[in-house]
Write a structure and sequence with these properties.
This protein is of the alpha+beta class. It is 36% helix and 26% strand. The chain has six helices and ten strands. The strands form two sheets. The protein has a six-stranded antiparallel beta sheet. A four-stranded antiparallel beta sheet has the order 6-7-8-9. The radius of gyration is 21 Å and the shape is globular.
């Protein structure tokens, strides 16, 4: 799987990710079922190989993990047959570049083909998957899609703000910090039901962004995803 002449320019982390890629079992890719919409992601790209006909590479991620171990893995299929697998994050060498796969706690975070020249192409999700349905919604209803995306960001900003306010008070009570800076008392006293509701809203916002493979370390990570 490792391409000669290319790995020399890779970072230590990239080489580490490529080393943990294991051969696949050669089993055929199972078709996507509607009840797997939130549990399974399938994304594909067609790549030319040696000047011949294109080969279709498909990445499969089962978000619940393997039944035996519970470990979430990415599997790479070449024309429908399992060629390789790896724990996440994953980096699969393919003709002309690599396919990089990452996920957050709520869904896909990244699934891109990175060419040897540095250009990137996002893999296309199966139209029956959550990512595929969200992409189709954006294509058919761009205005509504933009509004949904904006609402998701607002929900996440509220969630991040609440987390920061709630974390500031106990941190300020650490003796060394309290002696030098004093203690901080949160100005908000939200009822439990509202706290839970806003937290649920932030989780929904993060999930919606995961369907579009959008991720920001402060927004999505700060909301507990």
């Amino acid at each position: 799987m490792i391409r000669e002449g290319v790995t020399m320019g890779l970072s230590w982390n990239d080489r580490r990710l490529e080393r943990r890629v294991k051969p696949g079992d050669g089993k055929p890719l199972k078709p996507f079922r509607w009840w797997q919409m939130t549990r399974r992601s399938l994304l594909s790209i067609a790549l030319p190989v040696g000047g011949g006909p294109s080969v279709t590479y498909t990445v499969e991620v089962k978000h619940g993990g393997d039944p035996e171990s519970g470990v979430v893995r990415a599997r790479l299929y070449r024309d429908g047959l399992c060629e390789a697998e790896s724990k996440l994050p994953a980096r699969f060498p393919v003709p002309g570049g690599t396919i990089e796969v990452r996920r957050s706690e709520v869904g896909m975070r990244r699934c891109h083909f990175v060419a040897d020249d540095g250009s990137e192409t996002r893999l296309v999700p199966d139209p029956r998957s959550a990512e595929g349905r969200r992409m189709n919604f954006a294509r058919e209803h761009p205005g509504a899609s933009a509004l949904v995306g904006a609402v998701s960001v607002v929900l996440l900003l509220i969630g991040v703000g609440l987390n920061l306010l709630q974390a500031a008070q106990p941190i300020s009570e650490i003796p060394a910090i309290a002696e030098s800076l004093g203690t901080f008392e949160s100005p908000l006293r939200l009822p439990v039901w509202l706290n839970v509701t806003l937290g649920f809203g932030a989780a929904l916002g993060a999930t919606e962004r995961a369907m579009r493979m959008r991720y920001h370390w402060l927004l999505d990570g700060g909301a507990g995803t």
